[in-house]
Design brief:
mainly alpha
Length: about 110
């Protein structure tokens, strides 16, 4: 019985993680400019890859592997949005323009 529960939770984590990763990939293709693409990749990509990592850790049924998977997820949450912010800030300072749909540029007003 416990094997079915583990399999069901793992399958749910895999499906949700894959959907987040798919949303990030679609955002990379469909969004108009660098800044919105980075937002999609950093937010949805982080959650998607973290959930896939947790699924692998949960499926192993080993507390040490699950702890490493949780540590990796926390590492994703701490590093990916910060690095995307720094890349977007550097792109803005080097003169990369916002997309036509953007209506406000708070950094330029400083």
């Amino acid at each position: 019985m416990i094997d079915y529960i583990v399999a069901a939770v793992t399958a749910l984590l895999l499906i949700v993680g894959a959907l987040f990763a798919l949303a990030a990939a679609i955002g990379l293709v469909r969004l108009p400019d660098l800044y919105t693409r980075m937002h999609s990749a950093s937010k949805a990509g982080t959650v998607g890859s973290g959930l896939l990592l947790l699924a692998a850790g949960f499926y192993s049924q080993d507390p040490a592997i699950l702890a490493r998977a949780l540590a990796g997820f926390v590492f994703f949450l701490l590093t990916a949005p910060v690095s995307a912010h720094l890349l977007a800030r550097t792109a803005h300072r080097s003169g990369y323009d916002l997309g036509a749909l953007s209506v406000r540029d708070d950094i330029r007003d400083r």
